[in-house]
Amino acid sequence: MPILRFALTPGEPAGIGPDLCVMLAQQYWPHQLVVFADPQLMQSRATLLNLPLTLHTWQGPEDSRLCQAGELLIHPVPMATEAKPGHADIRNAQYVLDTLTAATLACQQGQLHALITAPVHKGIINDAGIPFTGHTEFLEQLTGVSKVVMMLATEGLRVALVTTHLPLRAVADAITAPLLEEVIEILLQDLRQKFGITQPRILVAGLNPHAGEGGHLGDEELTLISPVLEGFRQRGEQLEGPLPADTLFNEKYLAQADAVLAMYHDQGLPVLKYKGFGKAVNITLGLPIIRTSVDHGTAFDLAGTGKADAGSLITAIHTAVQMATAQHLSLETHE
Ligand SMILES: NC(=O)C1=CN([C@@H]2O[C@H](COP(=O)(O)OP(=O)(O)OC[C@H]3O[C@@H](n4cnc5c(N)ncnc54)[C@H](O)[C@@H]3O)[C@@H](O)[C@H]2O)C=CC1
Ligand SMILES: NCC(=O)COP(=O)(O)O
């Protein structure tokens, strides 16, 4: 197994992402972590947190150095203006996207094995005049794939989403049979290929309260979701649903399942975060690269204080290690 190399993006420079990267660097990692960021930002955040940090410029794929505790490899990306913890500046919005673009490109070119992202602030990027709904959608566009799927995971629970960052008013119209079919195909494929689950069992939530109550509280379950699920079942896939979302998150059902498919962001993620906040990972399925991320946002209230918890970023790294190792082993067996 070669040394694993990861691209790490600290996200919004006024948030806790840079703090978490400095904290990570305080321990020895048997992998390369290459942070795509402004060196001055990393250095000034380390000073603020009173933590040692020596940066080494990453020399590209030929560079096989591993860092000691207190060191980080860096691919320098310049910020437009100094970042003040807790106070995002629209002038740095393009910088955030530049770090993501450079890190993704390095992964696509095979220079690094996975992309690990710290949180961005979606609002400030939009305030800068750049339409942006999230890493997930940005990476879908950047890598040119037709569809990706957001899945968050913590011990004992995986939750994937049919729709991601949409106003609630737009959700019902966005859920169509072709979209649902595409999302389920990606979920099944990645559970098999990236997680080694040969026969995935998926619980699918309904859209409406009580999964529509037999058509009396909305008919999407009858007209759209059930026929799509039936099509997959006829192919031998194990999909259960549409189930009422308020009762499916129950050990009786979850013990029999590998993942839950929720129809929208706030149907599935509050449960996942209640169960595992700080120990959960966000994984983008359907991408041509491995991408993992944290379960939390920019936490402006904690930036620069040293109080942010690095648990989710560490989980994101461990998950990237597992996924990259599985990918390497699967490539080896197919050679
Ligand atoms: N992967 C990403 O890029 C994500 C970005 N966001 C973005 O973050 C911004 C702020 O979102 P909020 O809803 O305020 O959520 P948030 O996660 O930033 O903060 C919610 C609460 O959790 C606390 N918290 C968050 N991370 C923590 C950590 N590592 N350690 C200790 N406490 C922590 C915060 O202090 C706050 O009290 C939004 O723009 C949102 O879009 C949100 C989720 C994921
Ligand atoms: N709630 C999850 C989230 O907002 C993460 O989004 P993304 O930036 O990873 O697409």
Name given to the CATH architecture of the largest domain? 3-Layer(aba) Sandwich
Broad CATH class of the largest domain:
Alpha Beta
Mean pLDDT: 97
Q: Which percent range fits the helix content?
A: 25-40%
Low-pLDDT ranges: none
Helix/strand/pairing class, anyone?
Answer: alpha/beta
Rg from Cα: 20 Å
Gap between N and C termini: 15 Å
**Spatial order of the strands forming the largest sheet:** 3-4-2-1-5-12-11-6-7-10-8-9
- Helices, by number, come to 12
Topology:
Layout lengths: L4 E5 L7 H8 L7 E6 L1 H11 L4 E4 L13 E6 L16 H16 L5 E4 L4 H6 L7 H9 L5 E6 L2 E5 L6 H7 L2 H17 L7 E5 L14 H15 L3 E6 L1 H4 L2 H4 L4 E4 L2 H12 L4 E5 L4 E4 L17 H24 L1
Bound molecules: 1,4-dihydronicotinamide adenine dinucleotide and ligand LD2JLWAY.
The ligand NCC(=O)COP(=O)(O)O binds next to helix 5.
Descriptive account of the structure:
With 335 residues, the protein is of the alpha/beta class. The chain has two domains: 1-145 and 287-334, Isopropylmalate Dehydrogenase (3-Layer(aba) Sandwich), CATH 3.40.718; 147-278, Isopropylmalate Dehydrogenase, CATH 3.40.718.10. 40% of the residues lie in helices and 18% in strands. The protein contains twelve helices and twelve strands. The chain has helices at residues 17-24, 39-49, 93-108, 122-127, 135-143, 168-174, 177-193, 220-234, 245-248, 251-254, 265-276, 311-334, and strands spanning 5-9, 32-37, 54-57, 71-76, 114-117, 149-154, 157-161, 201-205, 238-243, 259-262, 281-285, 290-293. Strands 3-4-2-1-5-12-11-6-7-10-8-9 form a twelve-stranded mixed sheet, sandwiched between helices. A hairpin with a 2-residue loop joins strand 6 and strand 7. Helix 1 packs across helix 2 (39-49). The longest helix is centred in the last third of the chain and has 24 residues, at 311-334. The chain is globular, with a radius of gyration of 20 Å. The mean pLDDT is 97. It binds 1,4-dihydronicotinamide adenine dinucleotide and ligand LD2JLWAY. One of its GO terms (molecular function) is 4-hydroxythreonine-4-phosphate dehydrogenase activity. Its cofactor is Zn(2+); Mg(2+); Co(2+). Its EC number is 1.1.1.262. It comes from Nitrincola lacisaponensis. Homodimer.
